[in-house]
User: Fold this.
Amino acid sequence: MTQKKILITEFMDEGAVDRLRARHSVTYEPTLVDDAARLLLAAPDADAVIVRNRTQVRGDLLAALTRCSVVGRLGVGLDNIDVAGCEARGLRVIPATGANALSVAEYVVTSAMVLLRGAYAATAAVAAGQWPRNALSGGREAGGKTLGLVGYGSIGQLTGRLARGLGMNVLAFDAMMDRDHPAFADGAAVCAGLDEVVRTADVVSLHVPLVDSTRGLFDAARIASMKPGAVLINTARGGIVDEPALAAALRSGHLGGAAIDVFTSEPLAATPHFQGCANLLLTPHVAGVTAESNERVSQLIAERVLEALA
Assistant:
């Protein structure tokens, strides 16, 4: 078999990288994504490129991939890849569908429980000799609350099943599904309209791609229509939630909390509107990244890229 050249621009599990090296010539530089000039120089020699969410496979980079036949995506979202442009050039795009679903689902359920309870930011106060027991005695239990899922694909479905295990009720809206869709056959979630989910859920979790119809979906008006005291969790994509409007809803007390893992611009710059917001969890796009999920995602993409190059 003729040895091919594989370019990996962001971090990947070392075991999967070694698996690729056993068959082909591999350039593995996890920080190459931050050096546009060197990335463009390396691109023309690559028969395959493997990226995460930050490498933009479009424009100049896509044009430079003159030998490439496959793009492996270490994750599931494809908004950083010009899929139509890749297809037009004969490049196969392979996402790691399903491999990080458990990581995201656990992040959502954990965040919901932490934000509903509201007791876990007291470490410094308690260690300093304070005893804010009365102030922290009004936390809420997850059991009996309603989780609203906006998007009910594989990650949304797994999130719903975990939430049901905690005794939560689950409502789900998906623009591509009606109540007769097989995804609702097990009864883990009740199919509902978007407005009903937003209006009635104690926790709303987003699981939709960033496309024209979802950009700005949770603007100030939709956030205002959420149940008072509700929690909003976004592990999907930045740009779906209006970040200043979310911050305003937290400051006003309309929302009871939020967990945001994805942002309109990443990395997130110093952001005044988030400063001082109570019951807010911000994480750097890691909901789908754990030691276990990184291994699953990386091994899956290594296998699929090797198949594509065979």
Summary: Residues 291-309 form the longest helix (19 residues). The chain is about 35% helix and 15% strand.
